[in-house]
Write a structure and sequence with these properties.
Mean pLDDT: 73
CATH architecture of the domain at 154-270: Alpha Horseshoe
CATH topology of the domain at 154-270: Serine Threonine Protein Phosphatase 5, Tetratricopeptide repeat
Structural class: mainly alpha
Largest sheet: none
Strand content: under 5%
Number of strands: 0
Distance between the termini: 127 Å
Length: 270
């Protein structure tokens, strides 16, 4: 009887042990190696994506900064072209007025000679004397025209040389202020900003009543801006607005002032 009971007890102990083993396995399951590897890859991929996203934002910011710089440059070029068109129109009017005055003076001189009957007047009018008439050196008008043609043809080196020669040869010419201004423009286009600033400044100093004075002061401000002299540029452009209110130069100066960094304090123009 006892022998029958003992085997049954052994069986029940085995069943109990197996059940305990199953219970332990259920409470602490072994991690799936494949899932562990997937979780690790997913975490690493997340870190890589964060790095890539951060770098993309940096690249995007740099590209935006570059585009903004290009936009500012293009706007400046448009303003300069607009100002150039206005100054060219003024130049044509100035040239026409000067030419008209010269023709009127010649007509008056010829009329005086024809009525006075002075000896040798016929010879003089026909240019018969050696070294005069058709053999004379080019006038200041012709010299100015050659320099200006070189500038329009984008032959800036030649234009600079001819405008400088003109100013030395004809310092008292009615076109000297224009020549001084266009000399500055030729320097400005070739990015010789030191000489451009000196040329534009000379217009205001030597020809303060010139019709080119507002534009010269405006371009002096532009030149100082290109030289990174922001404080000087702001002061110069402010002077344009104050001295020439209502002019196209004042309008362009005000627009440029609005686009300049706010941390560039204004000071008196030199």
């Amino acid at each position: 009887m006892l022998a029958r009971i003992v085997p049954h007890a052994h069986v029940w102990l085995s069943v109990a042990a197996f059940a305990a083993l199953l219970t332990g396995c259920a409470s602490t399951p072994e991690p799936d190696p494949m899932q562990v590897r997937l979780d690790d890859v997913d975490g690493r991929l997340g870190r890589v994506e964060r790095v890539v996203n951060n770098q993309s934002l940096v690249d995007l910011s740099q590209r935006i900064d570059g585009l903004e710089s290009q936009l500012r440059l293009l706007r400046g070029q448009v303003e300069e072209l607009q100002n150039g068109n206005q100054t060219l129109s003024k130049q044509q009017r100035d040239l026409y007025a000067d030419l008209n005055q010269r023709v009127a003076a010649l007509e008056s001189g010829l009329k005086a000679l024809s009525t006075s009957g002075a000896p040798g007047s016929a010879t003089a009018s026909n240019g018969g004397a050696a070294g005069s008439g058709s053999a004379a050196a080019p006038t200041d008008q012709a010299a100015y025209g050659h320099a200006y043609d070189a500038l329009k043809a984008s032959d800036y080196a030649n234009a600079i040389a001819q405008f400088r020669d003109f100013l030395k040869t004809y310092p008292q010419s009615a076109l000297a202020d224009n020549a001084q201004y266009w000399l500055g423009e030729a320097y400005y286009v070739t990015r010789d900003f030191d000489n451009a600033a000196a040329a534009f400044r000379a217009v205001g100093q030597q020809y303060p009543q010139s019709r080119k004075a507002p534009d010269a002061l405006l371009k002096l401000g532009y030149t100082q801006f290109e030289q990174k002299h922001l404080s000087d540029a702001r002061g110069t452009l402010s002077q344009v607005v104050q001295r020439y209110p209502g002019s196209s130069a004042a309008q362009l100066a005000a627009e440029r002032l609005q686009k300049m960094p706010a941390d560039a304090p204004a000071q008196a123009a030199p």
